[in-house]
Amino acid sequence: MFRDRADAGVQLAALLEEYRGRDDVILLGIPRGGVEVGAQVARVLGLPLDVVVVRKIGAPGQPEYAVAAVDEDGGLLIGDRSDVSRAYLEQAAADERAEITRRLEAYRAGRPPLEVAGCTVVLIDDGIATGLTVLKAIGLLRERGAASVIVAAPVVAPSSAAKIRRHADRVVAVAEPRGFAAVGQFYDWFPQTTDDEVRAALTPSSGI
Questions:
Q1: How does DSSP classify residue 63?
Q2: Do the Cβ atoms of 170 and 177 come closer than 8 Å?
């Protein structure tokens, strides 16, 4: 479906043409892969790109399966799994809050964040499986005064898209395929994005 994240970003940008060059629109990528996709959208549409760091908490023994999510302000969103203890979630959340702080310092390199209050925010990820991190990010952006929140991703699990539509103003996806097991299954090349690649995508030439 997608050669790589760059290809996915170009395809996603084609669905976001109505936002091209608007001075009331900003893009926020969810690291790491969402920033790489977002950089392509920013390039094609001439929009500023920043980062919003939200971290998932994986299930015990299943780190890739999100059971909760933590945002930049430390807020915790717990999913539907009832077999995960509160003690586990609190300890994992503390660890992820420390990682969020590290990433914000590393990625922005002293630059101030883009102001979201009163803006239309396009929240970008490289794919959405459970949707917990995206839901947490939407809540954070609402708290910060975003006028509207558009969730955009190349590929979204249909069940997650339905949940997110109840909280976002709009969901934009290239595909919402059945048989969704993992984001990587829809990419020919899907390596882990590095911190250096995120920093490169967030350089001033990208719009910050």
A1: E
A2: no
SS3 172: strand
For the stretch 121-174, pLDDT in tens is 999 999 999 899 999 999 999 999 999 999 999 999 999 999 999 999 999 999
Rounded (10°) CA dihedral 181, 123, 39, 30: -60
- Beta pairing partners, 117: 146
Residue 183 CA, chain-centre distance (Å), reads 13
Closest CA to 113 of 16, 48, 169, 168: 48
Cα distances (Å, whole numbers) of residue 124 to 56, 62, 88, 95, 155: 16, 24, 29, 24, 11
| Residues 53, 72 contacting (CB under 8 angstroms) | yes
Tell me, what's the pLDDT at 81? Answer: 78
Q: Cβ distance 47 to 57 under 8 Å? A: no
Cis amide prior to 32 (ω within 30 degrees): yes
Domains defined for the chain, CATH in brackets: 5-53+112-203 (3.40.50.2020)
**Residue type at 108 in one-letter notation:** R
Q: Is the pTM of this model over 0.85?
A: yes
69, β-bridge pairs: 56, 77
Place of tokens 């390596």: 191
Q: How far apart are alpha carbons 90 and 87 in whole angstroms?
A: 5
